[in-house]
Amino acid sequence: MTAADKQFPPPPILTHPSASPPILVTQGAEGRLYKTTHLLPTLPCALKYRPPKPYRHPALDARLTRARISAEAKVLERCWREGVPVPAVHAMDAAAGWLAMEWIEGVPVRVAINAWLGDAEGEAAPTNEKQEEDLVDLMRRIGEAVGKLHKTGVVHGDLTTSNMMLRPRGSGTPANGEPEAATQDGRAKALEGEVVLIDFGLATQSMSDEDRAVDLYVLERAFASTHPRAERLFGAILDQYKTTFKKAPSVLAKLEDVRMRGRKRSMLG
Amino acid sequence: MTLERIQLEHVPANIRIYATLFRDVANADFLHSQLLARNPDFEYAFVDASSVISRFHLLSAVYAAVNALVTGSLRTPNVHSEIVVSLNVNNNIADAYRRWGIAPGKTKDLIVVKVVAAPEGAASTGTASSPARTAQEPDDEQQSLWTHLATHVQGTPSDLTDANLAPLTDWSKVRKYYRLNGVPALAGCKDGEEKRRQEEKLAVMGMALKGL
Ligand SMILES: Nc1ncnc2c1ncn2[C@@H]1O[C@H](COP(=O)(O)OP(=O)(O)O)[C@@H](O)[C@H]1O
Ligand SMILES: [Mg+2]
Fold first, then answer.
1. Residue B58 CA, ligand 2 centroid: distance in Å
2. B86 CA → ligand 2 middle, Å
3. What integer pLDDT is reported at residue A180 of this predicted model?
4. Is the pLDDT of residue B129 over 90?
5. Quick one: signal sequence residues (chain A) (predicted)?
6. 8 A C-beta contact, residue A33 and residue A47
7. B30 at A interface, C-beta within 8 A
8. DSSP assignment of A110-147, as one string?
9. Where, residue-wise, is CATH 3.30.200.20 in chain A?
10. Residues B171-194: pLDDT tens digits?
């Protein structure tokens, strides 16, 4: 047992033998994400686990955990069926609080963008138009993914660049994990790949313009704080969102209202 | 012997899984009658191969059933019936037997799965990296299971490989059972191999969600 295991005892399912030990990727407020294997040593999977909350009544806790794991799995399945790029569900035991899904190769979009921007900073010449075009192109792919998501009647609830993966093209099979940013060629490739949406723990089924606009607003704020140097390109996300999703105009109109409220709120402190 | 021991990830060391395939089975009626009679010598999961897509598909059901066994949440009398029900997209047991179970007069190609749960602690010391878990198990368990199957199943023993399973799949049935027709995600998908993989994922998702 490692120190991490003591601090965060693994779910019972992960205490059974596997070819390689599970890796704790993140420990969030609500749950944990392990990288492990499913069925075969060669099939990597992401296992989301919601541990019991000792401060909640056990019966209530069990019910909430079960409902949340089921809800997340259900949204993933729905999105996947509709062609929204999300991880496929491999298995689930809602009562035990876990959900095993396809492991998405690559890095979170946040990491890819920051690696790319960080690189640009280190360079003698400022980012030229051609290079900026790479970033704009990634923004379009994000806009397309979000547009597809909203089209299916799902709002994400926590759209940030940490909750999107950038999957290298043609990586159905195990591949590299780190973003390539070291070489010129690597830099050009750093923003390549397919945007895959993850983390549907707060997702809901909704067709409301307001809910959709809040999704976009959350993403916009996330960009402003995580990638201030990329914020001015946010328009590219919305442009592509409009192209992908027919009902975008009314959502974007609502987005104006949501921004306004946001500004008022921040003025009030 | 085509009966293989299958080691799945995250299965307790005291649980051993065996499986094989028989083609052109001539005595499905007899095998079915043994299940009906609850003959304890026939505690197997008999799965009609025409309703199975691939090894991954089958193993997903086996894993779900073993997990239910381990966590004490079986919905059916035992782990073998649980395998059959795990292939279904809902909890309707009769339906599952009709679709995935052995059908007298119909089943031609048969997958057989056997799950042995040794007493807890008997072989529970192993991790994947230690050979302990294979050291203590009865060497002849696999052999005696095989002898029993080879004696009672009249068919051609075959390896349980994707290559052997693929030609046996009745896709019109499978597409119906897993609601694979008219799925938007498959719309732009032409390439046969790629489409199969997508359909397999959808089927497995349907099983995992159980109609939620
Ligand atoms: N399917 C997946 N494939 C690869 N990595 C994943 C997957 N799901 C999550 N991750 C990684 O784990 C992190 C946390 O997962 P997430 O679902 O966002 O949970 P949380 O609710 O803790 O934010 C993600 O930011 C990502 O780096
Ligand atoms: Mg997250």
1. 32
2. 30
3. 46
4. no
5. none
6. yes
7. no
8. HHHHHHHHHHHHHSSSPP-HHHHHHHHHHHHHHHHHHH
9. 3-102
10. 999 999 999 999 999 998 876 889
Name the phi and psi angles at B94, rounded to 5.
-60, -45
Residues 6 or more apart whose Cβ sits within 8 Å of residue A146: A156, A159, A197, A215, A216, A219, A237, A241
The CATH homologous superfamily to which domain B4-209 belongs is CGI121/TPRKB (3.30.2380.10)
CATH class of the A107-268 domain in this structure? mainly alpha
Does B184 contact A83 at a Cβ distance shorter than 8 Å? yes
Does the Cβ of A88 fall within 6 Å of ligand 1?
no
Ligand 1 and A27: CB distance under 6 A:
no
State the amino acid at position B121 in one-letter form: G
CA dihedral for B51, B55, B57, B62, sign (positive or negative): positive
How do residues B53-81 score in pLDDT, each as one tens digit? 999 999 999 999 999 999 999 999 999 99
| A236 touches A140 (CB < 8 A) | yes
Q: What is the pTM of this model?
A: 0.91
What residue has token string 């040593």?
Answer: A41
CA dihedral B55, B212, B184, A209 (to 10 degrees): -150
Both tokens assigned to A155: 């709002």
Banded pLDDT at A130 (limits 50, 70, 90): confident
Tokens of B121: 């602690």
Sign of CA dihedral B7, B10, B13, B19: negative
B115 touches chain A (CB under 8 A): no
Question: A18, A6, A24: which is closest to B127 by C-alpha?
Answer: A18
Selection from B209, B188, B185 nearest residue A81 by Cα: B185
Our answer on whether the CB atom of A202 is closer than 6 Å to any ligand 1 atom is no
Distances in Å between the alpha carbon of B106 and those of B10, B26, B48, B109, B118?
35, 10, 9, 9, 34
The label of the residue with tokens 């259900």 reads A74
Q: Provide the residue type at B211 as one letter.
A: G
**Cα of A96 from ligand 1 centre, angstroms:** 19
The CATH classification number of A3-102 equals: 3.30.200.20
Q: Residue B131 CB: number of other CB atoms within 10 A?
A: 9
Residues 6 or more apart in contact with residue A95 via CB below 8 angstroms: A62, A65, A66, B71, B73
- Pairing outcome for strands A154-155 and A164-167: unpaired
